[in-house]
Amino acid sequence: MRRLAPLARSLEARTVAVLLLAILVVHGGALLLYRQSAAAAADDAFARQVANQLILAREAVLRRPPSERDTEAKALSSPHFELGWSPTSPMHQDEAADPGLWSLRTRMLSLEPSLGPGLALAMGIGDEAVHQEDLAGAIPLADGSFLTFRSAHAPGIARLGPWAYLSTAMAILVGVAAVVLMHGIAGPLRNLTRATGRIGHGVVVPVPEAGPDETREIARALNAMQHRIHGLVTERTQALAAVSHDLRTPISRLRLRLDGVADPAERQAMGSDLDDMQAMIDSTLAYLRGDDDPEPRQVVNVASILMSIADASSDAGRDVDYAGPGRALATVRQVALRRALDNVVDNAVRYGTRARISLAVEAEALLLTVEDDGPGIASEEVARAFEPFTRLEASRNRNTGGTGLGLTIARRIVEAEGGTIAMANRPEGGLQVRVSLPRAGR
Amino acid sequence: MLPQIETAPPAGDAAHILLVEDDDGLRMLVTRLLRESGYRVTGCRNGAEFWRLLPAGGVDLVLLDVMLPGASGLDLLRALRARSTVPVIMVSARNEEADRVLGLELGADDYVAKPFGRPELLARVRAVLRRSAIAPSPLAAPKAECLSFSGWRLDLRSRSLHDPEGAGVDLSGAEYDLLLVFLEHPGRVLGREMILELSRGRLGSATDRSVDTLVSRLRRKLEPPEGLPPVVKTVRGAGYMLASKVERT
């Protein structure tokens, strides 16, 4: 039942259910109507047959003298239609008034009025069970005697012919065909749903404009909407990027004017503020650049990048070291990967006092680890740490600067290179970021 | 850093720098800065002014902004290289690797990204002027684009290093400059002072100790793949030596 629940919610399943129900009702109704009309036709034929035989038998019997009449009637009998002659009425009054047979009697009288109003009919005369369904009856003759009959076939029983089975088979076939066709019609809708699921991850996903008019219209509208949104986002992005680029010129001016500041301490403080502004602009631009990075991929010694990062950080007076092999190859965009790893290490020293970078060469991948001794982050915030503009102030509450884009950019770059990035708190305190990159030539 | 500025060349044979920068404030500041350092500076705003000023002659260096109104700095550079070998330093607000490589490929001698500080700009200007003074590159002989040594390959345009198996190796700016010093003097023992002298302006405020650190860092990056001899050898008591042949391609 649990597996049927989603089926019951599906538009396709519901449509198919309605369709099958309709076929079932129509088919059942048709069978019922046929049965009714077949029964009426059988009744009619039976009435005609009985009336005819009675007329013929009456004439034959009346031609004989009374002593031979019974014998003559018997001779006219067939296995299914027994005739007899009786000088007195063989039927009781109450039997002749069987209301179920009125319509048969009326029909017989309307076919052969000469049978006369004395016609009496009854069901199941006799004690034997075999004869319960038989029709018995009598008509008065001109001399006051009676001609009796008994028909083995009761009226009103119409059998379902083989065509009924054929029509049932046909209904089933039509049902199956309808289900298959419905599935086909629902196909474009399913494709539409699948394509829609891919929308919104940065690139314009062409939604297939196929299928019935309605789905085609939806797809067309979706495509148009995507282009509008993409255009809007691109426009905003370009504006933001242009501003970021333009900011570099005034920062340059400020940097050059810095030489006019007499107080060395003040000069240094202003210089570091300008450094912060520059770093924010750089990371904003890196974030805005998105996925269209034109840098080609090449086999790169990742260890050399880690060495450079550790060296540059040490030169800037931060406690960062690299321990690992001198050579470890991966096929990546070198400048982009450098930026990603820079951001990870920067994040580590920003919140901790030192960072340890290590590299392990595994069978399929290079495993890069950056560990800090900072406060770590709450485990429920780990997933949020990679979201853009996120600052996990709760646990890492310090005036640390940064744009909140570093780890977002790092994750996007690492994932673009076919790698993964994850973070976890170390049991001994601090945060550990693990970056896995596929090895070159694997 | 300020004392270095005092040692600028005297005004008599001062190098003439043509500055192309559309931002008035920045042009004024850079002009002042370079004049304080003893250079003759002419500023202009765009390509049209640039072409008017250039034939006046005596230009030793062009500082060219990439983002100019009208024809971009890269267009100017392309046109300039068709007729002249005057040293050019590109100045750009777009600190993108692709832009840097494109500028260098079009024939720029160096590339400075905005925002830059006074020491960085002066170091670059000095280094480029010095290089052009030592080896004025005639039009006929194209500059080397690649230096090969012991299977390693240093691309001078993109400033990228590849190991004998073709894998890219990350080099810092200082490591690149140091490697270039070694590659320009293969087979010669270079002492620390010598290295500082040869790379003057490029290794910035390097000291003897930092030269040792830098050499050891460079050697770690130049670690040969398997069983090959080291590229940079230590000569006890004397300094360092690049122990391989250098081919220019």
TrEMBL record, chain B:
Residue numbers of 4-aspartylphosphate PTMs: 65
Entry keywords, A to Z: Activator, Cytoplasm, DNA-binding, Phosphoprotein, Transcription, Transcription regulation, Two-component regulatory system
GO CC annotations on file: cytosol; protein-DNA complex
Subcellular location: Cytoplasm
Main location: cytoplasm
Source domain of life: Bacteria
Residue spans binding DNA: 144-244
Name of this protein: Regulatory protein VirG
Organism: Methylorubrum populi
Highest classification ranks of the organism: Bacteria, Pseudomonadati, Pseudomonadota, Alphaproteobacteria, Hyphomicrobiales
